[in-house]
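Example record for the data management plan.
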Amino acid sequence: MSDAPKQAPAGRANTKKALPEHLKDYRHVWVFVEYEHGLIHAVSLELLGEGRKLADQLGVELAAVLLGGDRAALGEAAKECFACGADVAYIGASPLLSSYRNEPYTKVMTELVNAHKPEILLLGATTLGRDLAGAVATTLLTGLTADCTALAIDEERSLAATRPTFGGSLLCTILTLNFRPQMATVRPRVFSTPARRLSHNGRVVEHPVHLVEESILTKVLEFIPDRGSDKANLAYADIVVGGGLGLKSAENYRLVVELAQVLGGEHGGTRPIAQKGWIPHDRQIGQTGKTIRPKLYIAAGISGAIQHRVGVEDADLILAINTDPNAPIFDFAHVGVVADAVQLLPDLTAAFRKHLRLGRLTG
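Corresponding structural encoding:
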């Protein structure tokens, strides 16, 4: 048997390049932890759970990066990160980091990366995370894969970041072969929140922050919380009712809303009905919308195309209602009902309302 190296198949060039020498010092997996107004964004904890898996595969440490204005508060937040799997917490504290601004956060993150050289840097695909990730990747002259739906380590120990492309009709896996760190943003609820291990401790590394307010162009004048907002909270709802084109009209979408209200859940729909204007885009569920992981998902009049499937298939229980017995959604739904959703939803709503009312009376 020959020990000669395998050649690439005819007609296919082997484009894999050896990692440049100056990049071999890059090690460890980092997660930027989004910490604002005393709270850690749930997506950061989800990324720590996934980052732990990647770090274990590579045999390296998992680090959390925390920036903010209150050193003591960041220290408490670091404990939560340790409980979710982090080995190290890099902390940058300064009054100028109290509220998120792109310029100072980018400066401090760039300093941290250049000083400690992580091979992978993950951020949540939130408004803040997307803004920061693009700026940091540009400053570091490295690659960034945005809005990922899956992360893995390939046979060459590179980060394989998968994201939707061509309007959500295909999935594309992207490798950053010759630049470091390998950066990716991930949408909330793509990964589950890891189990907390209170016995797991880590070390804290404080990064000196040297910022001057006069050199920062943007200023925070006031923070006004959006307490009265009716924004969708689909990603973290325990119960979600979704509607599709099988509802036949925008007026019939109210049936989805009514059932969701009775169940105390959230409501949303597919990309086609968002494009038709039946629902606002922040209520779109699927690959190019919100990824959800509820305990119960009721899909009414939804065919179950791949773009929708990848956004809902991690629900604990999927109940599908569709007139077409061959609809793709029945391939992955736990319970399927062949029926007209427009006719069945009012009956379901009435039944749940009666059951819940009787439950309160007898409870």
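Summary line stored alongside the record: Residues 234-362 form a domain with the Rossmann fold fold (CATH 3.40.50.1220).
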